[in-house]
Amino acid sequence: MNSSRHKLFALLSAIIFCLSLSTHAQTNPIKLKYLGTAGWEITDGDITVLIDPYISRFKLGTGPGISPDDKRATVKRSDIAVSDTITIDSLITKADFILVHHSHFDHLADVPYIAKKTGAKVVGTETTCNILRGYGIPNEQLYPVKGGEDYQFDNFSVKVIPTLHSALNQKHYIDNRVYTEVPETPLKVSEFIEGGSLMFLARFSNHQVLTMGSMNFIERELLGIKPDILLAGVNRSQLGLYKYNERLLAITNYPKVIIPTHWDNFRLPYGFSQKKGVEDKLIPFQKDVKKLAPQTKVIIPTHLETITINERIKP
Ligand SMILES: [Zn+2]
Fold first, then answer.
1. In whole angstroms, what is the distance from residue 138 CA to residue 133 CA?
2. Minimal CA–CA distance to 301: which of 197, 215, 230?
3. In a domain, 281, yes or no
4. Ligand 1 centroid vs 105 CA: distance in angstroms?
5. pLDDT-derived band at 79, boundaries 50, 70, 90
6. Which end of the chain is more exposed for a tag (fewer CB within 10 A), N or C?
């Protein structure tokens, strides 16, 4: 080959290589839609996974978290939890799996309706599964776990990680209640007890997503885990933990992408401003991560907007 043909060949090879990369990236992006609270819809184009899908966003109590512009009826903790099926139907059409971090209402209250509607397999604690049985979800759909399991499904696998609930109530929170039997349903808001807490390492075709439903974690349970996307619990209660950001980033091996979760005011319906949460919680978190891990990108999510991550990241 003479030198000009050689150069042409090299150029063509480079173009073909780039095209193959971009084609691959375009056919396999991962898409994460923030449903608010700790809720996500994640898909790699093949498998659709919901994480703690809480869409009803009850107008709970009468405190400062409520807006006078929200004309919905107030919900008390002693009221029966009634899902907003109209909003759920407008948002959720398909799900293969639902991963539930714990059984509090802001994680589980809409799962009975969504599991029934989609037929999705649900992975959660014994308490989560017993509540769902109470709502008529069949055992074939339920995968009761404790943490430590690593389950392979078709084109999707999930490692279940034991964790701790957020240290609510200025670190005075503890609740060891569980449902070892099927409770009578429908449940009141307050009857959605924690029932133990989990994290998940959800492995999609090209990405590993580590999910959190609380502002807490057990360091040793995360040893050796290298997610490329971390849905990091960011709210207020983590401020009472020892070096939360620093320890979380180090033990998860400084993920390329971090998206804060469970930071919004979930008493407000979709469409209401969440600016205060962004300014008070997410901007300081983003700044801190920038200092601790300059290579990590913190993406601030907006309700119901889809974040698409195209590049293929080798785990
Ligand atoms: Zn909770």
1. 6
2. 230
3. yes
4. 8
5. very high
6. N
Query: Where in the sequence is the domain holding 185, given as residue range(s)?
Result: 28-309
CATH number (domain holding residue 262): 3.60.15.10
| 36 pLDDT tier (thresholds 50, 70, 90) | very high
Q: How far is the CA of 13 from the centre of ligand 1 (A)?
A: 53
pLDDT-derived band at 225 (thresholds 50, 70, 90) equals very high
Q: Measured between alpha carbons, how far is 295 from 226 in angstroms, rounded to an integer?
A: 15
What b/e readout covers 181-213, taking b as 16+ CB neighbours within 10 angstroms?
A: eebeeebebebbbbbbbbbbbbbbebbbbbbbb
Handedness of CA 153, 156, 162, 167 (dihedral sign): negative
Report how far apart the first and last C-alpha atoms of the chain are (Å, whole number).
Answer: 40
Is 22 inside a domain boundary?
A: no
Residue length of the chain: 315
What's the total number of domains in the chain?
Answer: 1
pLDDT per residue as tens digits for the range 45-55 = 999 999 999 99
- pLDDT, residue 125, reads 98
Q: Give 49's strand partners.
A: 42, 97
Q: What distance in angstroms lies between residue 252's CA and the mean position of ligand 1's atoms?
A: 22
Residue carrying the six token digits 């913190």 = 298
How many whole angstroms from 103 Cα to the centroid of ligand 1?
7
Whether residue 104 is contained in a domain is answered as yes
Q: How many CB atoms lie within 10 A of CB 94?
A: 12
| Residue 14 Cα to ligand 1 middle (Å) | 51
Nearest to 145 by CA among 159, 168, 126, 130: 126
Region 218-241 average pLDDT: 94
Question: pTM here?
Answer: 0.90
